[in-house]
């Protein structure tokens, strides 16, 4: 799928208009203050990320989302909250991670409730696959962390398996403070009695 370039509608817009889809972004140009960066790959309606950015002004946050309506929600909610430490990028998360996010630039990656692609013939489309740990390790700072959540048991088992097979990561606990911040999907699932499956992995060494 052709990556989609974000379009900014004004100077106060929090959606970063990509100058190129061939060159890695200069994260220093995204924020007024240079501080550690965390990235949510697939930010949904941005419920999690906006609240996280509000609680952690000492960090910068990038939400990556392909759908226009969702990235507009990030912009609207972020501006309503007066957040200077939040930006959105409209593009496929997989493309952003592999080609646009600078190497060794992120303190954390968040991947919450990605499409589980439950049919066997579609499993190759899953975002967290055999290549994901390598790409994540390239994007993360030393001791950077990947946080994962899903409601799908089969997908969770795959997530755990691919990280267990990677010597680049070691498992860690998700902090309680982070567990308490819910996504839009997570609220819906919990209301239906569907539990959240979580895992976290830190760059080893």
Please characterize this protein's 3D structure.
With 205 residues, this protein is α/β, with parallel strands linked by helices. It has one domain: Vaccinia Virus protein VP39 (Rossmann fold). Helix content is 30%, strand content 21%. It contains 7 helices and 7 strands, in the order βαβαβαβαβαβααβ. It has helices spanning 47-55, 68-80, 93-100, 132-139, 153-164, 176-179, 184-191, and strands at 37-41, 60-64, 86-89, 106-112, 140-150, 169-172, 197-203. A 7-stranded mixed beta sheet has the order 3-2-1-4-5-7-6, with helices on both faces. β4, α4 (132-139) and β5 (140-150) form a beta-alpha-beta unit. The termini are far apart. 38% of the residues are buried. Mean pLDDT is 92; it is low at 1-10.
Profile the largest sheet. Answer: 7 strands, mixed
Shape descriptor: globular
The level-1 CATH class: Alpha Beta
What is the name of the CATH superfamily?
Answer: Vaccinia Virus protein VP39
Mean pLDDT: 92
CATH architecture heading: 3-Layer(aba) Sandwich
Strand content range: 15-25%
What is the CATH topology classification name?
Answer: Rossmann fold
Please identify the structural class as seen in this structure: alpha/beta
Q: Give the count of helical stretches.
A: 7
Radius of gyration using CA atoms only: 16 Å
* Order of strands in the sheet with most strands: 3-2-1-4-5-7-6
Instruction: Flag low-confidence runs.
Output: 1-10
Q: What is the helix/strand order? A: EHEHEHEHEHEHHE
Proportion in helices: 25-40%
Distance between the termini: 36 Å
Count of individual domains: 1
The beta-strand count equals 7
The quaternary state of the protein chains shown equals single chain
